[in-house]
Amino acid sequence: MAKKNIKLNYALKSEADKTQPALLYVMFTLGGKRKKISLGYKVVPEYWDSENNCVLISSKQTQLQQREMKRINKFLKQFEHYVSTLIDADVLADYESKLIPSAVGTYGIVARLKEAIDKIKGKEIQEEKAHTFTPLEYFKKVVEEMPKKVIRRTSKIIEDRTVGHHKIVLKRFERFINYKHWVASSFSIFNKNFESEMEQWMLGVEEYSANTVAATFSVMKVWLKQAEEEGLITDKSFHSWKSKGADVQHIYLNDAELEAIYNLNFDEILKLHPNAKYEETRDIFIIASHIGIRYGDLSSLNKSNWDIENKTVEIHTHKTGATVLVPLTSTVIELYKKYNGKFPTPRDKSRFNEQLQKIGELAGIDQTIYIKKNVGGKVVIEEKKKYELISSHTARRSFATNLYLRCRNARLVMNFTGHTTEENFRKYICVEKSEYVEMAREFFN
């Protein structure tokens, strides 16, 4: 006798509000009686496809909803497979009719179907557990995949230095959960109290600056937004985390200081460090301070369009993707001729900065600078020599500040720096109060 299977039908529980999820049932007829079993899933009526007995996936759904809909469809396929391969309607119906009433609930087809539902769901739970990441594991995965991703706004691959910054924050987060002795097995730790607890640890225990705290939260918010999109976190508290630091005190080098650096003789230092290439570092820094480019664009100097006759250079900036045309000073033209247009490649950034500070010291840039910082939740005043604060970015700030002090025209300088608002530009340049007073004095006089 050929095997004859049960025909299953599905339907949603009738609800007055059709926009709300309704319970999904499986129904079938056995021995002339209509049977109905809840599958334990809820579906919004507009997403239920009654012809194909499946849930529709829509772009209107959140990623979390889409995952749930896929889970239901997967369950339905497995349930249909179970029924088609393991349950013979004729045999079981005959068997069930011979059972005493008290045994029907245990051994009958209804019980078998309920067992199938529980078994499939149990297997589903085990599979989910096997593929569930702890927050730390998930964050590691996000950071590992960063080099393969493209930034939508710029259509560029994420830079190595950005990945490196994320790795630093990842280690910081790992130290924090170890300090708290948290198992941190789920994203439930990111509740309304998490920000204050981690901030207290960073400021009070690790004695980080307030800006480091803000930078840490800024990176972690990127990870948590991705986790939210994937339905791993539902608490919205992290959206309000502090992620913008206070303005940091920077320096610039004036024309006289830049000239002192340019006129340095490296004979003595080269006797001690013959392979250090201090002169190359100095020359590249001087070029950057005269055309205003970032450290990341120094390697593009040889690929830029140099027009010595018209004294201009056209540079494609790496960070923003913008192309700027900058006038050349006589100093830059001298250096262009010195290297025949083939500039040396800048060394590692940390080594570059280390050499710049030594160069600044040799040039006598030793003015005492008092810096106010927030460290460990307390305001402290640090005393530094100016040369200790010189870095690769000092060149660009020096270009912007010196040009602004000459022309007093923010919009003109912004054409070369790429700033889009005067507010941000004025934070960027290093104009002291006394210099603003001198500017104003012209008008008073």
Automatic annotation (TrEMBL):
Domain of life of the organism encoding this protein: Bacteria
Record keywords, A-Z: DNA recombination, DNA-binding
Domain Tyr recombinase span(s) in chain numbering: 259-441
One Pfam family linked to the record: Phage_integrase
Signal peptide: none
Gene3D superfamilies: 1.10.150.130, Intergrase catalytic core (1.10.443.10)
Keyword Protein biosynthesis: no
Family membership noted in the UniProt record: Belongs to the 'phage' integrase family.
PANTHER family: PHAGE INTEGRASE-RELATED (PTHR30349), PROPHAGE INTEGRASE INTD-RELATED (PTHR30349:SF64)
Name of the protein this chain belongs to: Tyrosine-type recombinase/integrase
